[in-house]
Design goal:
CATH architecture: 2-Layer Sandwich
Shape: globular
Radius of gyration: 14 Å
CATH class: Alpha Beta
Helix content: 10-25%
Order of helices and strands: EEEHEHEE
Number of helices: 2
Number of domains: 1
Structural class: alpha+beta
Strand content: 25-35%
Length: about 120
């Protein structure tokens, strides 16, 4: 088992690992649409936040030798389920020929007032 973290900086000060690898599985902590290296969300609401969240996930996967094609499960938390369709519009553009298994549910109170948070499991 390996507890994996980004290089020293903003994320390394938080009390969790960005990912944990167990055998061929990679468990990612939840990601939001924050600007890399800053405690600040991208502006523009659900569309831009979803795009940035998925870009953050992609960056984390690459750092640890995985890709978006390796994702097998995503759990999506939305601040407003009425934004589910807008979320899906962006989400589908990040996957070429298959989609991971997925759950989505509405929540109250994501970090930094985010509209979306996604946690994923990758497998090779």
């Amino acid at each position: 088992m390996a507890y994996l973290n980004a290089k020293p900086g903003l994320a390394s000060d938080l009390p969790f690992s960005e990912a944990v690898q167990v055998d061929n599985l990679l468990f990612l902590s939840g990601q939001i649409g924050s600007i890399p290296g800053k405690a600040q969300l991208v502006k523009g609401g659900i569309g831009p936040e979803t795009r940035q969240t998925l870009q953050n996930i992609n960056s984390t996967l690459k750092r640890h030798g995985y890709s978006m094609n390796d994702l097998v499960k995503c759990t999506v938390m939305l601040a407003d389920m009425a934004e589910w369709s807008a979320f899906n519009e962006v989400y589908r553009t990040f996957f070429a020929d298959h989609f991971p298994a997925r759950s989505a549910f509405g929540v109250q109170g994501l970090a930094y007032g985010a509209r979306v948070e996604i946690e994923c499991i990758g497998a090779r």
